[in-house]
Design a protein that fits this description.
CATH superfamily: Divalent-metal-dependent TIM barrel enzymes
Distance between the termini: 6 Å
Number of domains: 1
CATH architecture: Alpha-Beta Barrel
Low-confidence stretches: none
Strand content: 15-25%
Strand order of the largest sheet: 1-10-7-6-5-4-3-2
CATH topology: TIM Barrel
Structural class: alpha/beta
Helix content: 40-55%
Mean pLDDT: 98
CATH class: Alpha Beta
Length: 278
């Protein structure tokens, strides 16, 4: 597997970006340029990544393509199309978004999120995005979420079947579906089920951790890898069964030091379990 994360420091071109990636000890990276980059600039980064054995893991399309607000929905779908096309030209492993939300916060919890009609809307918008772009290299993926489809490996399998597009795949962030004490205390079982059901479709993963506080009623919060309950032995063991270039991308930390400690923890778990991270 490959390890990557956000970069701290300034880069102005492909060469300085490569130096930053290497200085962080990463072999995978988030997409370094936006969809507004010229074709020449984009290809300079693609060539530099290939020459230096760096994989571009993902392009984020963060938006709400199922918003009840028509204008927001249309804008989001257009962003997803542009992001997927950009991921394809950048030779990224995937373009990733969440399904969205049926309310005024793009990733918020709303009662309508889990209705059958919302499932159908996710299917329709995802098909529209993929059919418009027709990617030949990359994949469109959705992160699982605690309160919107897909919210489990089972519902992800249902979406895969319903969307029925070869360029629809899986982005796995297991912390996002640790949404109950039962799941919190059995993250290894949850992770193994995700890989058992979705493994061949997984194109990229996010690495973080989760902790349950003792305050009533249930408070689950993200934390740095190594400080929570996520079973990283199971996570890395299952990841190790996927193609060797599959990225594990760190996220949602605040400082370079936090990312350094997160990477150090993940590498130590891998080393102690004879798992190779390139």
């Amino acid at each position: 597997m490959r390890l990557g994360g956000p970069l701290f420091g300034e880069s102005t071109d492909a060469d300085s970006w490569i130096k930053l990636v290497k200085n962080h000890g990463y072999s995978a990276a988030y997409c370094p340029v936006s969809s507004s980059a010229s074709e020449r600039e984009a290809q300079e980064y693609v060539a530099a990544a290939k020459e230096n054995n760096i994989v571009i893991a993902e392009v984020g399309a963060w938006s709400n393509p199922i918003s009840p607000d028509v204008k927001e929905k249309e804008t989001a779908i257009q962003k997803c199309k542009e992001s997927l096309a950009h991921a394809d030209r950048m030779k990224a492993f995937c373009c990733v978004n969440i399904a969205g939300a049926r309310g005024d916060k793009w990733d918020g919890p709303f009662a309508d999120n889990l209705l059958p009609e919302t499932f159908d809307l996710i299917v329709q918008t995802t098909q529209e995005i993929i059919d418009y772009v027709k990617p030949s290299y990359t994949y469109y993926t959705l992160e699982m979420m605690p309160w919107i489809f897909p919210d489990s490996p089972e519902s992800y399998m249902q979406l895969i079947a319903a969307i029925d597009r070869s360029r629809f795949a899986v982005h796995l962030d297991p912390v996002n579906i640790v949404n109950s004490p039962a799941r919190y205390f059995s993250t290894g079982d949850l992770i193994r089920k995700c890989f058992e059901m979705l493994g061949p479709k997984i194109k990229s993963c996010h690495g973080k951790d989760i902790i349950l506080s003792s305050s009533l009623t249930v408070h689950l919060d993200e934390t740095r890898p190594g400080l929570g309950q996520l079973d990283y032995v199971s996570f890395l063991t299952e990841l190790d069964k996927l193609p060797v270039d599959t990225p594990l991308m760190l996220e949602h930390l605040s400082t370079a030091e936090e990312y350094r400690m997160a990477a150090e923890y993940i590498r130590s778990v891998a080393e102690n379990n004879n798992i190779t991270i390139s």
